[in-house]
Amino acid sequence: MPGNPQGSDKPATAAVQNLNQSLTVNPLAKEVGDNQIAFNLDRTIEELLTVLESKEKLLTFVPPEQFQGTTVFEGKVKDSEKVIALTVDDGPWPETTEQMLDIFKQNDVKATFFWLGQSIENSPKIARRVVAEGH
Known about the structure:
Number of helices: 5
Helix content: 40-55%
Radius of gyration: 28 Å
Structural class: mainly alpha
Shape: elongated
Mean pLDDT: 76
Low-confidence stretches: 1-8
Strand order of the largest sheet: 1-2
Distance between the termini: 59 Å
Strand content: under 5%
Largest sheet: 2 strands, parallel
């Protein structure tokens, strides 16, 4: 019967394989009719195993490296401090981002910027300024 003869370290897959093995060895199968039932049961278990393996792949998806972020700076906050997290999730845009950075600097405000790599490649000067100013 097709399947993964080496076993699996995935709990759901391993459980189905164990069930498959215990049902395949059917001590009650004596006649052709019983063998047909055992065969149909084996086929059903194989279909279930295939579905579970595809679901496990979805649950263990890891985004490609180009979409994974990097922590440039991590801040620590005392329990007694009141803080607001200011985030900017678009850009950088040459005019407006520069204006925001000027305002942040005048008011000693730090922000977190969420930008795509391609956007940063298009405006590396602004991206370097953001990092240099401690955002």
